[in-house]
Amino acid sequence: MYMTKERKKMYSADTILALCKQDPEFHKYAKTIYFKKNQKIFDLTDSNGKIFFLITGILMLTVRFDESGENEIILNFVKENQLFAKDLFSQIYPSTSEVKALSDGACWAIDRYFFDRILTEYDVKEQFIIHELLGLSKDTFSHLRKSTTSKEERVRMCIKQIGEQLGTVGENGEIVLPAAITQPIIASFSTATREFVALIIKKLTCEGILQVRPKPWIILDVDRL
């Protein structure tokens, strides 16, 4: 079904949170969770029956394919003003999916019963769930699409995607990446080895596309990625 800009705005995370905050019982059913870099968000509180809203910081959605975690990959990132929930992820991703902190930050943990009541009152519950699941499915498709490309193209696509999702655009069109973005993060996101990522980053630097020193990284020419 075609979704207008107005309907997309209605189901956006910040709009839904605003509806929740209007309710006089919001602070009874919501609390602020503070996290440190590398912490697993769902381990900080009883995540079952909770909806999370990222206030500040950067999170990454990861999936591991063995107990050791050596084959863990990053599926996507969660940025400020986004909602996420364990039960939503479980409908798309394996049970080994996690949300990990890429930086220090904070998020709201909202009781699911209260959240569902608000969605029901405004008659947007079903549409909101569909909207969120479509977004997660789109993330998965994007990752699958990258897997059909060459390793170099995959690394380039991942750096560009991180810039578009998490970066800050400068006066001259350059994109400043968060300081937390490193070669291991790019490797996990692109499913390439760290050694190969290092080679591509060196190549991009020599070509004047990427600047990695001093930190933070800066995409100087996003059109050439």
TrEMBL record:
PROSITE patterns from the UniProt entry: CNMP_BINDING_3, HTH_CRP_2
Record-annotated Cyclic nucleotide-binding domain positions: 34-119
CDD domains listed in its UniProt record: CAP_ED (cd00038)
Protein name in UniProt: Crp/Fnr family transcriptional regulator
Keywords: Activator, DNA-binding, Transcription, Transcription regulation
Signal sequence extent: none
All copies of domain HTH crp-type, residue ranges: 149-223
Pfam families in the record: cNMP_binding
InterPro entries (UniProt xref): cNMP-bd_dom (IPR000595), cNMP-bd_dom_sf (IPR018490), HTH_CRP (IPR012318), RmlC-like_jellyroll (IPR014710), WH-like_DNA-bd_sf (IPR036388), WH_DNA-bd_sf (IPR036390)
Native source species: Listeria aquatica
GO annotation (BP), single: regulation of DNA-templated transcription
Entry GO MF terms: DNA binding
